[in-house]
Design a protein that fits this description.
The protein is α/β, with parallel strands linked by helices. It has 9 helices and 5 strands. The termini are close together.
Length: 190
């Protein structure tokens, strides 16, 4: 199995690149943000709970996110591998993910971080907000809060996998194709 973490700040292109990687490598894309948005769209109890955090640009509590992720993984056991997008976002989520994969005699192959400067992120997300219909993409203060949360709570995940020799940094600027080629170069080494 190839199990990838597509990492990086909000708006760094994780979702866009994940779609292309799925096509090329046949992995299952799991975006926890998309899963939350699906639940919110259906007004489920999980969606209602997540909404209060997401609208403020904060993280949903680990146990909620981990439970949802575990369900998704366990519902799709027979795959060539997973691309985790937007997860793990904290150290406890990283530990939970490692434990889950270990139970299946598996592990993370690589964490690929898309590096994009803050101002570019804000520009990209505001642009995406014109069509995404996401409340958290339409307000600059919320976007800045998400970047802040990324730096404080999420960026340590890079170091966590670096200690295991699994973290790689990728230049997230350029065309979609250029960035995709950089990712593929890393993946093809696995
Ligand atoms: O990954 P994405 O940027 O689509 O996530 C949107 C929002 O969902 C985040 O800003 C956060 O509020 C919530 N989220 C979370 N924990 C995750 C993934 C997403 O709290 N692991
Ligand atoms: Mg996304």
């Amino acid at each position: 199995m190839i199990n990838l973490i597509l990492f990086g700040p909000p708006g760094s292109g994780k979702g866009t690149q994940a779609e292309k990687l799925v096509e090329k490598y046949g992995l299952l894309h799991i975006s926890t943000g998309d899963l939350f948005r699906y639940e919110m769209g259906n007004d489920t109890p999980l969606g209602l709970k997540a909404k209060s955090y997401i609208e403020k640009g904060e993280l949903v509590p680990d146990e909620v996110t981990v439970g949802m992720l575990r369900n998704k993984v366990e519902a799709n056991p027979d795959v060539k591998g997973y691309i985790f997008d937007g997860f793990p976002r904290t150290i406890p989520q990283s530990e939970a993910l490692d434990k889950l994969l270990c139970e299946k005699d598996n592990e993370i192959s690589k964490l690929l971080m898309l590096q994009v400067p803050d101002q570019e992120i804000v520009t990209r997300i505001l642009k995406r907000g014109e069509t995404s219909g996401r409340a958290d993409d339409n307000d600059e203060a919320t976007i800045r809060k998400r970047i802040d949360v990324y730096k404080k709570e999420t960026s340590p995940v890079y170091g966590y996998y670096q200690e295991k020799g699994k973290s790689e940094e990728i230049n997230g600027l350029g065309t979609i194709e250029e960035i995709f080629d950089r990712l593929c170069t890393e993946i093809d080494q696995l």
